[in-house]
Amino acid sequence: MGPSCYLRPFYLAVKDYLSCPPAIDLGCGRGEWLEFLLDEACSPLGIDQDEEMLQSCRERSLPAQQGDGVAYLATLPDESQAVVSAFHVVEHLSFDQLRTVVSSALRVLKPGGLLIMETPNPENIVVATCNFWLDPTHLRPIPPQLLSFLPEYYGFVRTKILRLQESKELAANESPTLNDVLRGASPDYAVVAQKAAPNETLVLFDRAFNQEYGLSLNILAERYDGSISARATQAEARATQAEARATQAEARATQAEARATQAEARATALLNSTSSRFTTPLRCLGSVARGLRANPWKSGAKSLIQHAASYIRRRPWLKKASLTLLNWFPGLRSRLFRVVSGATMLPDQPPSGPVVVAHLTPYARQIYANLKTAIERHQKGNS
């Protein structure tokens, strides 16, 4: 972006109160600024020491001459110029020469006239530490605050720092990278200073002076810090959510463990209860009854159940308890009734002869032994 773009608001304000304003451009180079001033119907003159640069101006019929800009400025009469400009000149001057340019410009400018100085911006860290020094004629980078202070010190009524040439994409980016911070600040800047004038003249420039320009290192650093802080906050939030989910999972595991403990306790209580001791043999009998149809030892198991029923019949307390328990298991009761050939579950007369268990399977003999043991244990408890 050339000076004609960002300086147009300032120069149009100059034209609002001056007709064909005269301007002097120190270090005019190839004459880009001179060409803009001619197109805007002003009366410019360029000064430069480099003959090759001046040749480019002459080829385009631009008003330029060879000479030392600082020395030429000192020869101009008071209040003779509307604009004094120096684009990428001040970084080639000693500090004393820079002070002379500023003080001389204040003298030769008309009331409300402008001093414009553009130079590399050392706020851009890559420019300050590397790019600036690629030109061996550069003496030192000048911070914006220093270059802005000098016109104020010598009596200009107001100054404005215009940061220039930054990336438009980066200017709109609220989350710059560290690399953006190092090299993304506006690589150039200009200081525009205005000489005192009546208020009706100064207000013509208010809009241009009140506008903000470019991208500073401070803004980039603040955006970078903000993005880092935002990412840290997001990471902390995710960690908090993960911790909450882990706590919930731990609570569910604790609840499940508690339920398992309760279930184990109920199972233990059931196994140790009187009803369990009585129903266990009955459940075993139910297993035998369910397997009779498929069991090759069907007749032996049937005989075992009949002897057990006869034994229970002879003991009223056990008969009553067995019937009560069987009422809780109607399926088992029906099977046992069928096993004893359709007779009552507890026949009045026991089968004759001793119980023969030798022909039973080991599983059937174990059932018989469990039932006999349970009955004997109960008898001992009541004796």
Automatic annotation (TrEMBL):
<dbReference type="InterPro" id="IPR013216">
    <property type="entry name" value="Methyltransf_11"/>
</dbReference>
<keyword id="KW-0489">Methyltransferase</keyword>
<keyword id="KW-0175">Coiled coil</keyword>
<keyword id="KW-0808">Transferase</keyword>
<dbReference type="GO" id="GO:0008757">
    <property type="term" value="F:S-adenosylmethionine-dependent methyltransferase activity"/>
</dbReference>
<protein>
    <submittedName>
        <fullName>Methyltransferase type 11</fullName>
    </submittedName>
</protein>
<dbReference type="InterPro" id="IPR029063">
    <property type="entry name" value="SAM-dependent_MTases_sf"/>
</dbReference>
<dbReference type="Pfam" id="PF08241">
    <property type="entry name" value="Methyltransf_11"/>
</dbReference>
<feature type="coiled-coil region">
    <location>
        <begin position="230"/>
        <end position="273"/>
    </location>
</feature>
<feature type="domain" description="Methyltransferase type 11">
    <location>
        <begin position="25"/>
        <end position="117"/>
    </location>
</feature>
<dbReference type="GO" id="GO:0032259">
    <property type="term" value="P:methylation"/>
</dbReference>
